[in-house]
Amino acid sequence: MDAQRRLILSTATAIGASALFAGGAAQATQSAPFDPIPPLPPRPTPGKPGDFDFLAGEWRIEHRRLRAPGDWDQFAGEATCWTILGGVGSVEELRIPARSFSGMGLRLLDVEKRVWSDFWVNARGGVLTTPGQTGSFESGVGIFVADDMDGDRPIKAAGIWDNISPTTCRWRQAVSHDGGKTWEQSWIMDWKRAR
User: Fold this and answer.
1) Quick one: pLDDT band at residue 33, thresholds 50, 70, 90?
2) CB–CB of 70/84 below 8 Å?
3) Structure pTM?
């Protein structure tokens, strides 16, 4: 996992139970109200080419990233996204000029297994994070999860795509210490189409 994403997940991990989400319908105890993380599907819906077509185009993004309990860093960014390989892939170039930061999201559909994988490349290191998060779209919400470790503790890391419309979408990062029963959100990106 990319060092910056690991730092963010570690920060979220350190916050502990005070900001956890309980179950599928609980409210966050963090300083702002959050939509709950949807439950993980018992049998994911098979992926199909074009599932990420909504992302193609130019975007302006408002970021909220958890620094410490109740302390959210807010900043602006932008992205350009392309659908590739007839909808079997999606490429995102993320730029945050105020932070001199950029990176690339790469989403690929395993056509045989019909499962999406979501990968990240930080421009500072140029290394593709593997194995990436795997997932599917469930009732219009993309749910992507990977097992990881926080020191010697197993965790689940999730990336959620929701609020998808022709002009908006949202990506959220969350971590779970109990196998996906409860989640703590650590990064929220509200996307608005620029053109």
Assistant:
1) low
2) no
3) 0.82
